[in-house]
Amino acid sequence: MRPRVGFASRTELELRFVRFERVAIWLLVGFLVVSLLDGAAWRWLRFGEERWLESRDWYQMLRQLGYLPVWIFVGVAYGLSDLYARRRGEPDRGPRSVMIILAPVLAGLIAELLKRTIGRERPPERAAMTADNPLPDQPSLQYVYKPFLSGWTDDTNMGIPSSHAAVAFGALVLLGFMHRGARPVLWLLAIGCAVSRVIAGAHWLSDVYAGAVIGALCATLVWSRMGCGWSRDARDIWRSRRRRLG
């Protein structure tokens, strides 16, 4: 019999480490790939000025998915709905409201901490076309970093990771765990939020990739610690109640 460490055997821990290692490698490879595409994305995905985009409803819808108070209100709404259901004697639906709020809050917090620590600035602005200069020289597409840790005293123009992408993925990926049938639509909305930041010129493609990874990992962590146990417990409670009623 293999020795056990905590609640998992040594073999289980080794398998978990191997899975973690593979995921980390693939995420790193993905970051390197999107970093190579940053320049192309700046040239081809960005269109129009952000002021023009801000007047478009579809852009505002996608951008606000990365606005943390939206998910706080959604979480409160879930909490009130679950409280009403419990008072009516329906099965316990678990800490859904806590998870919906916790995942984007955690993702946004980690993104803001990393943003100030890394100190990489946002992409440059496009040179404006004028009648005298219809083809202006475009700025150099090189990363610009603030001095190390100076982002903690000057947090203007910070880029990586994108907080909007982190919050949106944290909330929508978690909702995808809760509502598996709606997962394609929820993930599409999360991707749309991330892309909206690139087309507006507010972030490099690698900025939103990093934010998306942080949000997805936070959602997975919250669900694995709170959601999976709740879903199993909820099924057991529902079965026991049906036996008593039968």
| Helical residue percent band | 55-70%
- The total tally of domains equals 1
CATH fold naming: Vanadium-containing Chloroperoxidase, domain 1
Shape: globular
Strand order of the largest sheet: 1-2
CATH architecture: Up-down Bundle
Q: Estimate what percentage of residues fall within beta strands.
A: under 5%
The helix/strand series, from N terminus to C terminus, equals EEHHHHHHHHH
List segments where confidence is low: pLDDT < 50 over at least 5 consecutive residues: 1-7, 241-246
Radius of gyration, whole Å: 22 Å
* Number of H/I helices: 9
Category by helix and strand content: mainly alpha
Main pleated-sheet profile: 2 strands, antiparallel
- Output mean pLDDT: 81
- The level 1 CATH classification is Mainly Alpha
Q: What is the strand tally? A: 2
What separation lies between the terminal Cα atoms? Answer: 42 Å
Explain what this protein looks like in three dimensions.
The chain is mostly helical and 246 residues long. It has a single domain (10-123, 143-245), classed as Vanadium-containing Chloroperoxidase, domain 1 (Up-down Bundle). The chain is 67% helix and 2% strand. The protein contains nine helices and two strands; from the N terminus they run E-E-H-H-H-H-H-H-H-H-H. It has helices at residues 10-36, 38-44, 50-54, 57-64, 68-87, 96-118, 163-178, 183-199, 205-245; strands spanning 4-5, 8-9. It has a two-stranded antiparallel ribbon with strand order 1-2. A hairpin with a 2-residue loop joins strand 1 and strand 2. Helix 4 (57-64) packs across helix 8 (183-199). It is globular and about 65 Å long.
